[in-house]
Each structure stands twice: as C-alpha cells, then as structure tokens.
Fold:
Amino acid sequence: MTIPEHFESQSVLLLVAGLKGAIGSTLATAAAALRAGDNSVSGYLTTGGKFTDMIPVEALHVAGWDSRDEDLAECARQGRVLPAAVMETYQAALDAVPVLKAPKSGTLDSQVEKLEADIDVLCSQFPGSRPIFVNLLPAAAGLEAATDVAALTQAYDPDKLPDLAYVLAAIHSRVPVINFTPNRVEMDPVVTLAEEAGVPICGYDGKTGQTYFKVVLASALKARRLYVDGWYSMNILGNEDGANLMVPEKASGKLANKTHLLDDVLGYEVGERYGRPTHKVHIDHYPPRGDAKEAWDVVDLLGMFNLPMSLRIDLQGRDSILAAPMVIDLARWLFMLQLSGRRGLIPELAFFFKNPLGENAPRTFQDQLAALDELEAKILSNL
Structure:
C-alpha cells in the first residue's frame, strides 16, 4: 500500500519539553544528522521504511523548552552521550535550535497560556512543518487522579507534575502528544480533552533497554510454557535520570511500570507460589557510567516436573542512544495518525512503552508487533 497521490510530503517539528537533557540533546543531534543524510541514524529507525512518501525521514526539526542557561551543544557535551567528532559535526545545527525558557511558576492556566503562545512562536519558525509534542521532563512525584479539568486545575502543583501544563497547551493547540516519561499525565479529563480536540496521545514511559528485552524474553518463555518463578533486575546509570530516580517519590512510578509489566505479559503474578512478589527491580545512580547504563537480570524458571532452571542477562546499553530513535519513530506514527483522523489514546503503540495506555493495549511482544502492522494498514486505508 502507498500514500495516495494527492498528499504532499511534509516535515515534522518536534516540540520537546526538557530539550537540554541527555535524550533531548541527543534527539536534536539525530535530527540534524537525518537532515544531513547520515544513515548511521536513519538505519536505526523502525519506521525508516514506512510512510516515506508522506514524511521523508530527513524532514525533521527540533525546538522546545528547558530551564538550563547553558546552550544546547554545551548541555549535550555535559551529557557525555556523543563522541567529540559527532558533536563537532553538528555544533552549528545545535546552535540554531530554538530553545525557550521553561515556565517556573504561576497557576496551571497561566502556564498553559504562556506555553500555547510559545508553541505559536516555535511553529512560526518552521512554516509547513507539522508539530508533535514530546515530553522528556524528569521523573516527578505526580498528582492524584482528577475527574475533571476543574479538579485537575485545583490540584496542580508545578513541583510535582510540571508536565501537565505542556500537555494541556499542546492539546489546546491541536498538537499530538508523546509522553515518554514515567509521569502519568493521561488522566481521564486530559484524554477527554484530547479526544474532543482531535489529538492523538500516546504513552507512557518509553521502553528502551532492560524492559524491552524483558518483554521479548517473557513473551518467549510464555510461548514455551516455562514458568517464571522469580525475576531480579538491577540497573545502574550515571546520568541525570539516574540521579533524579534516587528520590523515592520520583522513582515510584518508573519502578511500578517496570514491575507490573511482567505480570501483564505472563498473565500471572510472579511470586504467586510464595504469596508475595518475586519480581524485584532496583535502580542505582552510579556516576562513572554517565549515560552508559548497565542492567543485570536473574530469571528463575520451572520446567517439567517443576525442576528449576535459570538465566543470567547483562545488558550494557546507552540510555539516550536507545531512546532518541524511538521518539522519532513515535513522532512519525503520530503524524500519520492525526492525518488519518485518530484521536485520544493509541493502544496499538504499546511496543514503545513500559505501561501502554488505551483499551486492550497488547502486552506480549508478538501481539505488539502484530498491532503495529494492523495500525499501519488502518492508517493507510483511512487516508
């Protein structure tokens, strides 16, 4: 299936909250590399061969917000993600990225109003580009769920969930939303607003490294009818995300997402034989690693006659290098979804998230891949 001839190709503008963080600055560098035709980026996109008649992979721009005073290139260097040669190649492109100051105080309404104006300003600098909002803010304490916008406004605390103002501003501006963070912004009134505005929204908590492979392996063990008796996971990372997750109330959401996911995939509670969970997940900040995280997993299994077996896994990954292409892929999906008329939560994008939202979101790896194929077919049939 191909894109109908009456459509003209467009570019995508990523509007990123938390642009100067490790993932954001890596994302901006990747966008510059795509525009330069660098296949060391394009070759790692799962959507690299999809929708190219409508959205060429090189047609990608980045802008956004951050609270830091240092310029974007300096923040990228401080993140210790990219080698010096890459930074030197794309220094000028990073210097040209528009970055606005993040709102620090005020009511929810005043922050939303300011951010809506910011969106207009940023979009005006990239005429002809379709904007997609990307939430890359740090893990936050979060807010209690609210039943309507009035209750949400009253409960708003910018120190506990600054993400909310950005998401509401994006929805008011009819900009699709990617929530890549473990911060739950997809409360019922927010989803209702997105549906009313015709805005697709997907999340939450990007599934980049250890959890991605956990879903793959757990799906394989389930298919083979091997019983998972326990699963111990340890993560060390030295970037700002790791430091932020040392605050218990900020880490609770991410740890819950990492933990609950396994039960969802397997269809039973890991540890049910013991009357308490035996799926353990720990995160520790270890500065020498920087963005190069490491994840250890010990998996205890039972086979026929209830005989024990085990697996040991050691993943040495790069947090932002794993995350940035996923954000680009999600932006390309949301571009096409909005074009095809989809709105509200998109459960078919469960492949990308630890805690996918939406009705009947697929949980196993096989079901998630099948859902993406079905979603692509639906999009093209609706254009």
In short: The radius of gyration is 21 Å.
